[in-house]
TetR family transcriptional regulator (Streptomyces yokosukanensis), 193 residues
Amino acid sequence: MTYGDVMNARVRSEERRAEIVGAALQVIAERGYRGASLAAVAERVGLTQQGLLHYFPTKDALLVAVLQERDRWDAVPDPRWRMELLASLVEYNAMRPAIIQTFSALLGESVTEDHPARGYFTERYAEVRASMAAVLRAEYGDRLPNGLTPERTAPLLVAVMDGLQYQWLLDPGSVDMPEAFRDFLRLLGEPAD
């Protein structure tokens, strides 16, 4: 086998892994993690379940790959971000309903103690809250116009972003996620009564 053959095989393998992860995203979005089966994912990509196990030996290994792929598309905001970039992120998310649906399904299921993604989401939310506090501090200083600190406001900001995603997924015709988020940002800048 030549070096070129080895490289071609590696590229094909990576392409197949990406195809499997994409199919897993769709299946999880439709059925949730617990309802998703390796057989359903394998069927979507034209493999047997045994063939899929060659790429991902367990359902948990596939879940990790799905979460890593999602993070590639939707990195935690950098503390150097400005608030208007968060609004752009919400607009971008509105163009990716399957990713948002998968994330929301996994997040909802992860609150059970034995869910394999529980640790991932616990850690991710700690990182996101810290990052959002840094973004808020860069924008407003140590106190927002409403009198709250960035650390007190960060969980609320994250809750609004995630809550809007759920509402938008349930009724996209009634909830304009980007517009509602911009309205929330205006509220952050309002002084407390």
Notes: The radius of gyration is 20 Å. The chain has two domains: 1-73, 74-193. The longest helix spans residues 3-35.
